[in-house]
Amino acid sequence: TNREDFWQALVECANYGLTSSPKLPAGTAIIDLLAKMALLQLSDSNESNATASTVASVAGTASTSAASASVTVKDEILDGPDLDDPDCLAGRLISYCTELSCAADKAVRMRCVQLIYKILSALPVKVQISDDTFKRIQECLLERAWDVCGPVRAESLRALNRLQNPSRRDCPVISLMDHVARFDPSAEVRRTALQSIAFTNKSIPTIVSRTRDIDDSVRKAAYDKLTDRANCFSRLDIQCR
Question: What's the confidence (pLDDT) of residue 213?
């Protein structure tokens, strides 16, 4: 089909970016272009839904039969774009990157996580995602957070930022970031963990402890994080204060 032909052609082009060195500007430009294409499609979908919603609401006042039809249409279009839709470019790119994220080449792992991050960080709030897809993305990024390559670990933490659930006491993402912020040997990774981790009763003592990190950039990140939430000190015990 035309859709599959387009996808195969896109993958062929995407592979040039996904296999490029992280230091190569042309590779970064390809990754940025892929992310913008995916997000533009989602944006167009949202605008179409909003327009259809307005039309349906107006039509609903015309007659009883039209009103019934408009309610049905409105109920359907209230939902945001679905990442599991075969026509959703963002969902297909994320799935493709999760499959390649275990590649032997660290450059491929880095680029895959980078593209996932760029898409996830700009996804609309109302986007739909199934539990299976969410779990697959989360497991992929959690695995890359233990990668032997520091920049890959750091990029995975950035991508995990939107997958945190502060209301969940045992959130695996927050637990991972808490551990990494304390013990990762790379200052870049510890700093990224601090910048990405959500404020919870569990994470605040960790953030405070990083104000005594051996690396000045990590200490600065910890102070910047605390400055953004000055009221967080009320959650600390006397010893931490």
Answer: 95
